[in-house]
């Protein structure tokens, strides 16, 4: 029997056994050849769509002998920009660009230009960068319950990072180093719901922290009882999301953080996505569970300014309860011949201009701007949710606020997504279970966008129902993660995708 067929027929096999089986099977030349053949086919198709500029634009594989004219470069950039902008500008993209009004962009660009030489690593040269970052942190902390902090001895503090992933990496490293120093924990464990962002797995891999995954309930929220059972003497932190990326649902942060408090371990709220929406939505009267520093067990929060903070891409905030904990994030070197060296985050030199633009975004938005934005987003999400609910073949997963995920028992939802892609939409494919989501941003609050989304979605479902035998273009690839038991094969494929991005 074909070894691939054999694997596919096995049904569920414990992941560890499957990994051993896979490692050995892949040593067989026939299997290697077969996998390579599959890769080549898929990569060939992907290459065409990922490299659209090869024909109409010059390609540079070495530094041009003579510098090109600035006008020429700018004109080329403008053409590339124009080719790409309309999709996100017109509200066809899930997430990605969260504000996107030209006036706001122009303002941030001006601020960036004024500060383009600034580097927070040299705080002596640019004390303005330190001012901007200190104030970004203070304003974010204030928005996320610092005033209601039940432990005034441990004031809320933090740092600015380059994005959600870096904030999460930093927080997990901080807990690891804190637990090693204070408790002698050498085999640290982080307890995370299955729906938590992949950045936590990245932290687990980078920093050698064992990841214990907790199931979610029928509403895609973390199971508190399973979490309780998972806490061992090596546990350093429990994590919950507000909300989680896949289904937009908020974990039971109150119960989870109280559990962490009672067990004397850290609790991190990942509010990368919701940090700048939920506080305002709550004030507007939406049913938003508490997730911030007003809960005594919450010891850190990540919140992305470059998402719903409406800053330019490249900033996020990670907050801690107390400077003592934050110290475990900082890096210092006293022995280096280059002099005394210290830096707060993963990078050394950093773009001060991005912090300046972030600070400026927060000031220009103001509490009233954020509140109005949250209102529009929540109202648009409600229209989309209702529209999806009214399509009998689809069902909304969980009880989301502004990220609407839907699946189907009767049609292949990835084929519906394929259809939507052909209509110009860019949505997110999810798996385990198979689903699609749209993360609602200010772009979708423009007139008629939500209505057009529902119209196209209905047409997509009808098309797939009436053409059940078509395979779809990307649908098989999205389905692969769930259907292929060979995780190594899928992982290799993703690495080849990344290789492809670096091909000129
Ligand atoms: C809940 C959540 N956490 C973390 C991240 C990671 O953020 P970034 O892509 O800025 O690294 C995201 C991104 O969408 C997210 O939704």
Please describe the structure with a list of short key phrases separated by commas or semicolons.
504 residues; alpha/beta; Aspartate Aminotransferase, domain 2; seven-stranded mixed β-sheet; 17 helices; 13 strands; 47% helix; binds pyridoxal-5'-phosphate
Helices and strands in order, then pairings?
Blueprint: H1 3-9, H2 15-25, H3 29-50, H4 70-89, H5 102-114, H6 127-143, E1 156-161, H7 164-183, E2 189-193, H8 198-207, E3 210-214, H9 224-230, E4 235-241, H10 253-263, E5 266-271, H11 278-283, E6 300-303, E7 316-321, H12 323-327, E8 331-333, E9 341-343, H13 352-389, E10 395-396, E11 403-407, H14 413-422, E12 428-430, E13 435-439, H15 449-466, H16 475-483, H17 487-501
Parallel strand pairs: 2-3, 2-4, 4-5, 5-6
Antiparallel strand pairs: 1-7, 6-7, 8-9, 10-11, 11-13, 12-13
Helix pairs in contact: 3-17, 5-13, 6-13, 7-8, 13-15, 14-15, 14-16
The structure holds pyridoxal-5'-phosphate (PLP).
Q: Segments where pLDDT lies below 50 for 5+ residues?
A: none
Order of helices and strands: HHHHHHEHEHEHEHEHEEHEEHEEHEEHHH
* CATH architecture heading of the domain at 127-361: 3-Layer(aba) Sandwich
Task: Please bin the fraction of helical residues.
Answer: 40-55%
What is the general shape?
globular
